[in-house]
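sorry for the late reply, my laptop died twice this morning and i had to redo everyting from scratch. anyway the thing you sent over, i finally got around to it. pasting the sequence first so we're on the same page, its 682 residues, then the predicted structure underneath. double check i copied it right bc i was rushing
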Amino acid sequence: MEWTEEEIENYNCLRRIFDAHLRRNPHATNTRLLSFLALLKTYLPESFLLMSECQQILGPPDPIFGGPPFEKSMEPFNFLIKTLDQRCLIDPVRAQWSVQLLADSGISRSTTVKQLIISLCGDESQPGMLKFIKDLLTKREFGAKGKAKFSRLIQDIQDKENFYNSVSVLKTASDKLRQNPIYPQTLSRLHYIRGGTNKFNQAEKWAKTAIERAPNNSYVADTLGQVYKNRLMKEARTLEEKIRMGNEALEAFEDVEKKADGEEGQEMVEMAGAISISKTFNNRGLFGFLQVAQILLQKLPSRECGRFIDDLKIKVKAKFDFFERYLTYSQPNETSTEPRFFWKHIVLCYESYTTEKAAESKSFPGLLEALNRGLFTSKGRRAGFMKAERTVSDLERIQDDLRTAYQTDPEDVQAAESYILSNIILGNEMPDSPELTPVNELQAIITRLLEKGSKTPEFYLMAVLLFWPEEEPETVQDEDDEEVEPPATEDEESEDEPQEFDTSDEEEATSTEPELQFLGVLSNPEVQRYVTLMENAYMTSDAKYHRGRCLLPLFFLGKGSGLSRWIHKSRLDKIVENEVNNELDERVGPVEKWMERFNNKWIDGDVWRILEIQDMLLPIRMVLPDSPQEHEEEEVLVYARGKKIKVKTNAEPDSALSPALFYLGFTIQGPVVFRVGTVHSD
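ok and here's the structure:
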């Protein structure tokens, strides 16, 4: 970036002031304070120092004569500093110039930050200062190549000074802030990534120090696993070393997995007995185990280590099963998925240890992924696996295989789940396939197995889909039409009351508005029971692993009957992909731009305005419960001819929901409604 003439003149003026002052007063307190303010503002634009902290650095006034005003004490740098609400600030551009000018004069970044830590991080430190120090030394920013290895300051110290100065800075922070595990953890990462003499022994020492400070934290424990994994890759030479280092790494990652399993979400922070709190489940232990297993398979001779490898195979299979569910049912948030390498490493390890192909999986999540094959947004495509889309013949063959597996053992609940799902999947591709099992036969399977012990969320998902009330779509009355029912009395009218709909068979609708389903009468409360059981099963088996993540809709309620009314999300994704391809040239620009456009269509609701999707899905209406005490946050009711079904919503519940249109989707937790618009909207 080229400087303007004014910037050059201002910089040279500042340089002359620095040169003159630092020649006479290189160790003056006002020089130190300026260096602190400049360093903080350069690397943390939101930072500042409190006036009390500034006075602490400048020293107490003379007990007899007092001290000069702050502005006088800071001469000749007073023109650089602004005070606002007892906070001292410095202009960001001049802060960067000051940091460089100080470094040119021998006051390095590492010297400045160590003095800052020693001066202001004591027993009575301000919480804000502790956070600033933590961010200065450990906050890693995202760039074009992903997340940085280290904070900008630590990276600059390595680049502009040397590796050992960055080590010295982090050691100072670790010694001064002895309760915080993040500084020895960062020291460990610095050693095994950047090197230095005896790097893995040093990395191991600091990783263990971090664990001593936070013995139950899975993210801290993960660093030791990373140290052992990298040592295995780079230093293992003999067979004995490979097995010893491999076992160290495997055990370390199993410890991470164990600690992650014991952590609780932030909602449990006040709960006695919660030993460690984490916003999300830490999957690094499971993933790291698979990485180490793959490294060992490449390093160990199969003839001499066959038993060792066979023992690993069972654990590899279990961890693949976990990730297959985990990545099918949720993603980090609405706009992002796991890194591309993530699923690729999982699949390569699984296929190396087994004779099976991940893409041919007939597990429940594997079947759900079957219709995604070939889509740009599928896990396999993102990982670089080019697989052709499933044909109707493929799906019929899968359904036949699963029918045989179920008939072989009719008491196997998992086989029943997969068999039922294979019919729904086949119905998505070919609704009139002669191979489809009649719905009543599938319902009979659910009914027979329902009372045989606890079930999975997948089982209850099948129950909810099969028994969800089905009826002829009705039409919505125009606002200008007369009410079918007698008008309410003045006392009965209330804008806050949910709108009631008459579903009598004798009445005829007169509107030409888009068709709606007022989810029909149930002869029994089974659907609500299944919805409740599904959520309970999810909370027991899956909730802890998906906390903090975005649950993905697996199916949507569509127009149609029987199995064909359940629309797999891949059918919507395929339509959205075509829309994005028409808007962007596939051959130009990064993949990230394409994914951003695709994600935004879901986030902004554009997907619901695509005519092809509108023709496919069936809108519904819903309302809030009559009493606030009857519902929890994010819960609403959908009508079922005289009965109501409580479901989740991704829209903020409020009294204005009644006149709005929604689509009904299903995650692994249960039904959820997606806001579309209003009854009379375009």
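DSSP finds 27 helices and 14 strands in the chain.
thats about all i looked at so far, will dig more tmrw
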